[in-house]
């Protein structure tokens, strides 16, 4: 669920990829304090209050979003976009996706309808785009979804409205999650591309959360608008690899992001704040070099909670339905290395893990259906689309 209305220098690629995709064993989160104090553990819960039913399978699915009327958009990282009908379990291809730079963590990413989709038919999607000299970067584009015919549908006149600057070598940490705020602003998570320092460099929009108008222009009230250039796009900075981006029921923006070796985070995102990476983190570098904890530098915004060992958060949803009343207002996180559905309780500007449900497979995304059911996408080849209903 993407809105409150509709409803994550290069060491080595292989090393950083492990940081993002493998993670550690399932351990419960503790309030962000220090690496030493965030290691309490518990087994994932096997007694589940839901029944999981398989509806379809996709090849490396990355994102999904419901359209008005109940159809589901599903993206595959290799560059395919589908419209899935839950009533008859049929998938139809949507053509018109530009060529994506597939490889590493790159490819087709998020897909989100405009809040006024029923009027303008606009779809927003992110993907990795190739540049010169083996460089790549994330982009966000929008296009109109045309009417379906027998064989499928298409996106007409795709238009890129945002790009990561600069394009760099490597295939990780694109982030490129998309969320619309209740007032219709477009938010984009921009990963630091495993380059560390750009997260603090205002000449780059990497390692930032971006706020734009729905046409890609920069709102005049952005916190760094007076600086011009890509700095004007920035809403917050000091981020690593943001793979969850969602608004809660109060209209507040939250993210979850993968830490380095330890220190996965969930953050309340505040206009203009600096979240400290790579200067501070509740994790350490993979080569053993320590990173100072957040509590050593209070000028940086500390996470609402962090995980060490990591859960590898892939997505973020604030549940607002009635099918699972105990979860109303909770943050639901898909876990990759943890292979779990993680339920987080929010208390003001703090958070704590409440429950973790063992799903047996890496969970790429969690989405809320129009009827309040929950839908999960498994990661990887032949990943299942699962519908969760109360027992």
TrEMBL record:
The organism's place on the tree of life at top rank: Bacteria
Keyword Chloroplast set for record: no
Signal is among the record's keywords: yes
Coiled coil: none
Domain Glucose/Sorbosone dehydrogenase positions: 58-387
Keywords: Signal
Span of the signal peptide: 1-18
UniProt cross-references to InterPro entries, sorted A to Z: 6-blade_b-propeller_TolB-like (IPR011042), Glc/Sorbosone_DH (IPR012938), Quinoprot_gluc/sorb_DH_b-prop (IPR011041)
A Pfam family that the UniProt record links to this protein: GSDH
Name listed for the protein in its UniProt record: Glucose/arabinose dehydrogenase, beta-propeller fold
């Amino acid at each position: 669920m993407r809105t409150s209305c509709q409803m994550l220098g290069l060491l080595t690629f292989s090393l950083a990829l492990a940081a993002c995709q493998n993670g550690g064993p399932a351990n419960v989160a503790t309030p962000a304090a220090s690496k030493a104090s965030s290691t309490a553990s518990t087994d994932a819960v096997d007694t589940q209050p839901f029944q999981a039913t398989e509806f379809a399978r996709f090849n490396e699915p990355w994102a999904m979003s419901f359209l008005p009327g109940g159809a589901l958009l599903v993206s595959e990282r290799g560059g395919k976009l589908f419209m899935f009908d839950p009533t008859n379990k049929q998938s139809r291809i949507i053509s018109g996706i530009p060529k994506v730079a597939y490889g590493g963590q790159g490819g087709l990413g998020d897909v989100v309808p405009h809040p006024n989709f029923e009027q303008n038919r606009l779809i927003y999607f992110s993907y990795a785009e190739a540049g010169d000299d083996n460089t790549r970067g994330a982009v966000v584009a929008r296009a109109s979804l045309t009417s379906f015919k027998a064989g499928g549908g298409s996106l007409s006149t795709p238009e890129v409205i945002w790009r990561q600057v600069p394009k760099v070598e490597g295939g990780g940490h694109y982030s490129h999650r998309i969320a619309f705020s209740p007032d219709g602003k477009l938010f984009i998570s921009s990963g630091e591309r495993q380059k560390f320092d750009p997260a603090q460099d205002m000449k780059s929009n990497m390692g930032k959360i971006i706020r734009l108008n729905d046409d890609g222009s920069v709102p005049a009230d952005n916190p760094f608008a007076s600086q011009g250039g890509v700095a004007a796009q920035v809403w917050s900075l000091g981020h690593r690899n943001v793979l969850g981006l969602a608004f809660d029921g109060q209209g507040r923006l939250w993210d979850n992001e993968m830490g380095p070796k330890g220190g996965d985070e969930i953050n309340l995102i505040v206009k203009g704040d600096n979240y400290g990476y790579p200067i501070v983190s509740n994790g350490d570098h993979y080569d053993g070099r320590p990173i100072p904890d957040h509590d050593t530098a209070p000028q940086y915004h500390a996470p609402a909670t962090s995980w060490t060992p990591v859960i590898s958060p892939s997505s973020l949803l604030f549940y607002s339905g009635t099918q699972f009343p105990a979860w109303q207002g909770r943050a639901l996180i898909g876990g990759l290395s943890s292979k779990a559905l993680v339920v987080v309780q929010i208390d003001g500007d703090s958070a704590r893990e409440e429950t973790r449900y063992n799903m047996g497979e890496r969970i790429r995304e969690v989405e809320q259906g129009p009827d309040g059911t929950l839908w999960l996408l498994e990661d990887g080849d032949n990943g299942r689309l699962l519908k969760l209903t109360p027992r």
